[in-house]
Batch of 3 targets.
Target 1
Amino acid sequence: MESFLPEADREYLAEKGYANSEITDGSQRGVIFSKWSLPAGKYSHGEADLLILIPNGYRDTALDMFYLSPSVSLLPDQKTPKAADQTIAFNGRTWQRWSRHLPAQKWRPGIDGLHTFLQAVQSALTKATP
């Protein structure tokens, strides 16, 4: 399989040791991170697979939203995190959509990439509320 990620992203992921797969499903391309650790004691699962869809024109075009499988809920009440109540299908699986958007002025075309977006994902997971 030919990689669709820029070399800088591939090098970053290898350096960090992130288990990932680049998947094309129809017209969509995504990176799946296996067994992504979730903040301890916060969710119904300690880990989930993380999907980031890669838009056409990426790295000049911002990454937007992320997805978890299986879906998670917040402890102790099993409530769905805010703006994470929709699902999508990708690669034969159902993914919980986390609607998180970086303001356009926060994305630096050609500079930002998975390394900055993964920080935003981790922040969203840490700060999630019902």
Note: The helical segments are 7-16, 114-127.
Target 2
Amino acid sequence: MSKAKTPRPLNPAEYKALAEFRYQLRRFLRNMEEHARGIGHHPQQYQLLLAIKGLPREQAPTIGALADRMQLNHNSTVELIDRCEKRGLLRRVKGAADRRMVTLAITSDGERMLRQQASAARQELQTVGPVLSESIRQLLRRSKHRGD
């Protein structure tokens, strides 16, 4: 049995880069949460619609797939889907071949909300994105040079 290599501790510059990355990421997420609330939506509703819209083509938008993408448990995902369905943001679609298979489809109201929020996200990323990218570059560059 081989002994696992102990990772090298971060140096002060790496801690700074990691802290900056976390700060900028959290700032971005908070701004997006506030924007969603400002247009009358719960932030997780937008996140669910984005998860559906952004799924890889080969992956069906099932409750299980979305629970994984959202990192929520199954029951919490079902409750979120129920709330979105009540608001007219999405609908459940039963499979033609297997009626037990349920997928989710975004409605026109959901598409409208998704466009508003995604446009704001892109705009916010134009500001915070370069700082996030630089923080990641600093962490990866140091790790690569040291063989981690």
Note: The domain at 12-146 is CATH 1.10.10.10 (Arc Repressor Mutant, subunit A).
Target 3
Amino acid sequence: MVSAAQVSSNYLEAAQGSIPWDDLKYIFGEILYGGHVVDDWDRRLVKNYLNTYMRDSLIEGEEIFKGFAPAPNGLPREGILEYIESSFPIETPVAFGLHPNAEIGFRLLQADTLFKNLNELMSSGGMGGSGGSLQDKVKMVMDEVNEKLDSSGAAEGIDMNDLLERVEERTPYVNVFLQEIERMNILLKEIKRSLAELDLGLRGDLQISDSMEALMRALSEEAVPEGWSKLAYPSQRALGAWFNNLVNRYKQLADWTGDLGLPKSTWLPGLFNPQSFLTAVKQTTARRNDWALDKTVSSYDVTKKQMEDITAPSRDGAFIHGLVLEAARWDDKASCLDESRPRELFCSMPVIMVKAVTADNKRDVNRDQYECPVYKTQKRGATFVFSAGLRSKVPVSKWVLAGVGLLMEVVQM
């Protein structure tokens, strides 16, 4: 690890003119460390850190971050380094540009990990040690799952043959929902098959296989079985919350089969492949206006409406809802990003209007617009879906350093 004094030494050399700031940023951001950063959003963060903490004003007396006063004027280089080593405060989220709420989220994650590990240790003795109590618990979970399937109407899935006979025109939106229904039917079929097979095994009509034992272990631990998650979507939910979410996803698809039209507002996180819906918006607009699809891009405008306020589908695009903002909040009155409130880790977003425009006419990301990445889960990373420009009244670097992002799934709110 590089000490604060070593980093500060580089600052002082740059300030004395021996190494220009731009060259130093390039060395750090593009050669020494930046070359190892392969995610575009992480590279943006690295560049913002360099621009924030490599400035002449920090050497000239500006407060580096709240709680860390600059060194007294007139100190020699060695005195400045000694001051930094002796006075540097305990690391807090604020020192890295994060909101103080980030500490809460970190501690919650630590606690969840601790209890998860404890639970795994308690159940590591094998399946046979629990005897009938394990079978009773698994049977209870199976009954709950089957009851939810029956009560929601999802047990039989959606009849694709009947649906295809009713479809008069395969529009981009129709194609999206047909693909979603097909994937939902495959997942529901596997859930029913695996549960029926396990039931036969518990009754002694079949020999318990490795896959059945893995299913038993997952159900007993309130986890989503691997055989189900492979056919599903990225999720960090426990089994109960995951299944409730599955039922809600099924309901959106079942409601769509009523008139086969574009919903008033689409619950985007409820789709297996949300990217395909956004592509459908571009395809529909491009066909209507005779635009080249490869020169058509998406535009996102945050409205002041909630889902229940939408009375009809948009004529210019599509309304979507269900996104959650992390590390900041949305100010409905000012229609812009704002600081999170204390102990408020997440903020539900209003309905967002998705439109398609030509690349030439799309407004560039200005200083007052933060290009916000959207992810499927709180893990972010590979679950990236798209980015949306959110209005800001402060420099967008503030939100970059804070790690502001939109999420389609939040386990704890």
Note: Residues 125-131 have pLDDT under 50 and may be disordered.
